[in-house]
Design brief:
With about 500 residues, the protein is an alpha/beta fold. The protein is built from 15 helices and 12 strands. It has helices at about 5-60, 70-90, 105-125, 135-165, 180-190, 235-240, 255-265, 305-325, 325-340, 385-395, 400-410, 420-425, 445, 460-470, 470-485; strands spanning about 170-175, 195-205, 210-215, 225-230, 245, 270, 285-290, 290-295, 345-350, 355-365, 410-415, 440.
């Protein structure tokens, strides 16, 4: 017996929709696999090229005994090294296509993995009788990370162009226009590798619903339209999206079920917000006592060799930079005195590791009658800021005297930014966790789009750093800071 016409047509439409959805899924999966293969190939080629280049630089600079190796042996060493790098990157999760914290992880891997691979290459080249001069290794140690970082940036730009042309992306609707929604939208816009593009924000709150939501950043060049709710299957289908992200903490059970039902009817995947986008779990350690698992809170403790290496690097780099920048420091001090009356240096009490109070040095960028302890200006046209102050704040030259704090040991080159005592006095227990390490001149928060908001309200970056800090991550943060400063943040 034939099915009724309306039922048959709806069944046909559903089968077409399911077929299209399946094709989209296959297409996205194929795109990810192709991208992963291309990235592995690019990494292998870049690292092999780096070894070749290091060898020819070794010959050109006339370093060491100038031993000439056959091209076949140099090629074998390059291929073996490239394979080591790719295997270690794979083991480290570099090709899983996951999100990235400000691309710091990619840069940290690009510095750490080649160094580890070069250490592995030494015994393997001996066992396989592959001759390669040890004098070329220091050159490779500097050259290969630079090439790998450059290649990763180019690769990310290519992926971004492909995503603009609708290749390999999932269109995402974010449910919630509050702080969590803003952070998720910004994170998705900045995380190219995720392939998740926010196309709209839905919210039922009349106060939050607006025409558009801009990214959290300095230029605010990208925005996402905001639509007044509620979430319905028709509304979701209108945006031609693939996923619904619920970004409202403590959403009522009724509204959560309604959103899930709407997503299911529209044929969408749904993701729920369990915490802030970058929130780290509380640090704990477990002990097994005859089958009884006891869990206790613990603080992250940095390895002793990292502490020594970090302090040594701080001491050496701050000493060298103070010597190199001394003419610039005197010039800035002279211009500050010329521009407005008062001292060139601005000394302010800040809170350091374990709540220790210290004097932090900066170049004075505001008039002397401005309150010493008050929330810092967030806009360049703030009337408290002097003319020369606007210039040095824009390119962060006002922070240069803090190299003296680094030399003295109450600050580091990389770490959470120190805050004023009146702010720390109101910290809660979670916010006080950022006082576990020595504060720094630069860090993850300074590089983030969330810098437009107070530090203590956006401590996820600092907690992430405290939990995952390594010497290579510090180097990655410094590289990104240099790139950011050259780009000219506000």
């Amino acid at each position: 017996m034939a099915a009724p016409e309306p039922f048959a047509s709806s069944l046909y439409a559903k089968s077409l929709a399911d077929s299209g959805k399946e094709q989209q899924t296959i297409s996205r999966e194929l795109f990810r696999n192709v991208i992963a293969f291309c990235e592995v190939s690019a990494d292998l080629f870049t690292c092999a090229l780096g070894i070749f280049a290091a060898y020819f630089l070794y010959l050109s600079l006339r370093i060491g005994r100038q031993i000439q190796y056959p091209a076949r042996e140099a090629a074998a060493v390059s291929i073996v090294f490239g394979l080591f790098v790719v295997l270690l990157l794979q083991r480290d999760g570099a090709y899983r296509g996951s999100g990235s914290l400000l691309q710091i992880r990619e840069t940290e891997r690009a510095i750490r993995i080649p160094a580890q691979s070069l250490l592995l290459l030494l015994p393997f080249s001996f066992l396989l009788k592959l001759n390669f001069s040890r004098a070329a290794f220091p050159i490779a140690l500097v050259l290969i990370p630079l090439l790998l970082i450059l290649q990763k940036q180019i690769f990310s730009s290519i992926i971004r162009i492909l995503h603009v042309r609708e290749y390999g992306i999932e269109r995402v609707v974010v449910y919630g226009a509050g702080d969590a929604g803003k952070r998720i939208v910004s994170a998705l816009l900045y995380s190219t590798r995720l392939g998740l593009r926010p196309v709209a924000v839905i919210d039922e709150d009349l106060l939050l619903a607006a025409n558009s939501m801009f990214e959290m950043g300095y230029r605010r060049s990208r925005s996402v339209p905001v639509q007044r709710g509620p979430v319905t299957p028709a509304l979701l289908k209108a945006f031609r999206c693939n996923m619904l992200m619920v970004a409202i903490p403590n959403l009522s059970t009724g509204k959560l079920i309604a959103a899930a039902d709407a997503a299911k009817q529209a044929g969408l995947r749904i993701a729920f917000l369990l915490g802030s986008p970058l929130q780290e779990p509380q640090w704990t350690e477990s002990t097994d006592i005859d089958g009884l698992l006891l869990t206790s809170a613990s603080e992250p403790v940095a390895p002793w060799h990292y502490v020594i290496a970090k302090r040594t690097a701080d001491l050496v780099v701050s000493s060298v930079l103070l010597a190199l920048f001394s003419p610039l420091l005197f010039l800035i001090a002279f211009l500050i005195r010329l521009d407005s009356p008062g001292p060139a240096l601005f000394i302010q009490k800040r809170v350091g590791r374990n709540g220790e109070i210290f004097n932090m040095y900066k170049f004075r960028s505001m008039y002397t009658d401005a309150p010493r302890y008050e929330v810092s200006p967030t806009q360049s046209y703030d009337p408290r800021i002097t003319r020369i102050g606007r210039v040095i704040r824009r390119i962060s030259l006002d922070e240069l005297p803090q190299l003296m704090n680094v030399f003295l040991g109450n600050m580091s080159l990389v770490g959470p930014r120190p805050e004023m005592p009146f702010i720390v006095r109101h910290y809660n227990s979670r916010q006080r966790q950022r006082l576990q390490v020595i504060p720094g001149i630069t860090g993850l928060w300074q590089l983030s789009a969330d810098r437009s908001l107070p530090i203590h309200e956006n401590i996820e970056y600092d907690l992430y750093y405290i939990r995952n800090r390594t010497f290579f991550m510090d180097m990655a943060v410094l590289i990104h800071t240099l790139i950011f400063a050259m780009g000219g943040g506000v």
